[in-house]
Amino acid sequence: MDLGKGDKPAGSSRLETSAYKAQEEISKVLYDPACNIFKPWQFDSHLSHPVTLKTTYEELKILWNEEARFREGFSAGNDTIAIPNLFVKISGVHKDLCEYEKEVEFFLSSSKKLFFSSESLLGENLSEANYVAYSKNGILKPASGSSLMHFISKNGALDIEELAASHFFENMTPQKQLQTTIAHKLGQLIESDLLLKSSSEYATLRILHMLLILDKSLIGLLENFDYPFDVPKIAIYNGKGAPFTFEDCAAISFFYYCGFDILILTPSGHVDIENHINGSYFDNHCLEERNASIDYAKLKGKCDTSGKKALSRMAAFFKK
Questions:
Q1: What is the DSSP letter of 169?
Q2: pLDDT single digits (tens) 201-217
Q3: What pLDDT, on the 0 to 100 scale, is given for residue 286?
Q4: Helices marked H in 169-271 — which ranges?
Q5: Residue 227 lies inside a defined structural domain of this protein
């Protein structure tokens, strides 16, 4: 059939129903950033940046499970959104270990969190045998592009756009919007002074390697981060007080820029993340005592849910 001049081919436009138009008008009024009322994924395409809160220890516990939109510093613009987040290290333990365990369990009670009971986020993935799409000379799999070093300058600067064109970010997620977010956060991380001694091509290469071996559960937290609402959390219990690797600190720093809450629990009080992360970026709350011999397995169950010391089976028997 011939189309007359000015006619549109069938399927080139869609007719909005009256109900749809009414819903759109209501949404413009109801879901207004000034009112702090938002619909799900309203800011999915916005670029986010963290606004890290400096708090007291007591305030930390108040803010920990609070949604981003209710925290001081939250704001949403036309294409950007500011996410108030927490980056905290708790050094040492309380004199009363029951009180300490109770607080640790409180921090771990959040629904959107990943907990690591050792100092490593990457674990065995960091071993050379488990390199994913990566080798010492920085080569991606053929389907993913060419040498990673091609995208890195001598001073460690990274060409994000060219890296994206090489399908690098498709190794992490098939979601286009999330690929854009990851690229943006990677750029923020490399340009910042958050990671110490990171302005070299080798350091940038290690950061790229870290991204390739991230656990899928960490990417899953990022995929499900609806900015105004529950803030995803990474909590790490470093019972041995061992220093963190550069790659682990790079992973922590990456998710910090994604707006996550980061909590490092170091009962020994030892230096761990400070070897690679700029101390001005996080709060370090020091408790009364230091204990280098209590890992999470030993801590858990020392007290009952009411905070009292748990009795041994024998003591519990005689108490009857």
A1: G
A2: 888 888 988 898 888 89
A3: 97
A4: 176-191, 201-212, 216-223, 246-257
A5: no
